[in-house]
Specification:
Layout (H helix, E strand, L loop, with lengths): L5 E2 L5 E2 L4 E6 L15 E7 L8 H10 L4 E2 L2 E6 L5 H20 L13 H21 L6
Length: 143
Amino acid sequence: MPGGELEVSRSLVIPAAELSERFSRSSGPGGQGVNTADSRVELSFDVARSPSIPEHLRARILDRLANRLVDGVLTIAASEFRAQLANREAARERLAALLRQAAAPPPPRRRPTKPSRGARERRLESKKRRSATKQTRRRPDLS
């Protein structure tokens, strides 16, 4: 139900008081109803100043979402549905998914490895086959 707290993950829950919603007229077709219904939703969340985000996650989220933030505020717009309630729900789901993805721990570092002997031999063999194929396509040397 839109309006309650937003559960991003088990450890990160955003209270409804920290989310702000703005409603406006949605663009696109819709007949007479398009002029009266404010169905487009802009959901804003202040990532930089939110007390509900732990400090170690805040730095990671701010870094990963830097290109989407304006003064530390993340804004999601939803206008794909004709009903305002559906757009509110869609915006909340997108915000949760975005924060979940940004707060995810970084993948483990890749341990550098060298190609195996068999892999090197297969690579060279395929290069020789390719070379032979191209060799047969050339014009015969008549000198």
